[in-house]
Amino acid sequence: MHNLLIYIIIYYIVINIISFLAMLYDKRKAIKNEYRVSEKTLFYLALALGGVGIYTGMIVFRHKTKHMTFKVFIPLIIILNFTIIGYIIFKFIK
Asked: Using an 8 Å Cβ cutoff, are 33 and 14 in contact?
């Protein structure tokens, strides 16, 4: 079970880095008025436990901060992310 915790931590770090970089990529494309990352993809990344990366990208790059759906749902998804991680840890690591 110790390995499971290590895998969860590694996954969590990697998915949040990917999510953060997706926000950077989308911001750069928005500035150039080029093809962008879909909002659905950004929400999927958040739901895949990358909510902190998306939210951090919102703040650091000042990106999607005027979108009410991002302002409301990303923090809710982060709470869901922590709930899922907590459940996995308490359920499988005893």
From this structure: no
